[in-house]
Amino acid sequence: VGLPLVYDKELIQQYWAKQSGALNKRWTEFLGQSVPFLTKVAGYLITGGAAELQKHDVELARDARIIMEKLGPTYIKLG
Question: What is the DSSP letter of 18?
Fold first, then answer.
């Protein structure tokens, strides 16, 4: 049985309790893609502030797009 079609907190919790391996795998994939990107952003902010971010905005936008594509449709919708 999949996720309920109508919001039901109990049924959703039951579903994800059975899917912990899939959820953990997905979380690991997300962190594997996002942590290096966020580290790069933080590095730019620390070394040069907003000006450094602006200097690398095209690169960062490209990297963010590539990461969202790798992560799949859910993240593409967020982007």
Answer: H
pLDDT digits (tens, 9 = 90+) for 1-38: 788 999 999 999 999 888 878 888 988 999 999 999 99
Task: Tell me which residue has tokens 């290096």.
Answer: 36
Cα 49 from Cα 4, distance rounded (Å): 45
- Residues 37 and 32: their CA atoms lie apart, in Å, by 9
In the structure encoding, which two tokens stand for residue 12, read together?
A: 């959703």
Cα–Cα distance measured from residue 6 to residue 11, given in angstroms and rounded to the nearest whole number: 10
Cα 54 to Cα 19: distance, rounded to the nearest angstrom? 41
Do 39 and 67 touch, CB atoms closer than 8 A? no
**pTM for this entry:** 0.70
